[in-house]
Amino acid sequence: MTRALGLLHCFRDRPGELSASDLARRMDLSVSTAHRLARTLVAAGFLEQNEQTARYRLGPAVAELGRLSLHERGMHRAEPELTELARVTGATADLAIRSGAHALILVGRSVDPASGLGLRRPLHSTALGKVLLAWARPGEDDLSALPPLQAHTDRTITRLDALRAELEQVRAVGYALNDGESAYGVRTLAVPVLDASGHVHAALALRSTPDSLTDARLPWFLSRAHACADALEVLLLPPAQRRIRGGA
To answer: Do residues 205 and 128 touch, judged by C-beta distance below 8 A?
Structure first.
């Protein structure tokens, strides 16, 4: 069972088709063992095999479970809000949760409409990831448990002490920025959707270019991102898990 699940995880970082040799190399298995495990997953609907190339791809059972998980989390209710936020701001709006050392985008323009698969982005080099780390739950806030912080550009944070300082700043101002840290020419801001305990339930991002998401316009983008996050808190969390807000 563990090896079969590991085989499915091989497709996380490389969507598309993989051969039995690819799977064997990634899992440190013999090709015959990888092929046998893959055929078992094909029979269960978790993988499909291309009859022409004999390569494997994710099957319909994975998509079905993914859609069920999305609905159980209530994330499907966020789509109209993100669509409107994107329309108003002209930016790409995405909603993500944490998946290990990555931010997993579940709703938004970065989700492939054909496959339903969203992007998985490193936590340390993205605004989404910084938000998920800054307001992480106890047990998920140990930065030393992260894999080595790889550089994607010369602006990427690659030292844990620098990342800790960055997250302190994120908590202080209430939002995170990715200013060319994951790719040049991209600027992203992200805010948290918080629960009653003050921990992050999801992270909301607006991605654009430095020419559009300027320092001067940052407050305008932030006000709309925070308003959307407040609406998502109501949509995604049951009343007992929502923050208590003041006001008459």
So the answer is: yes
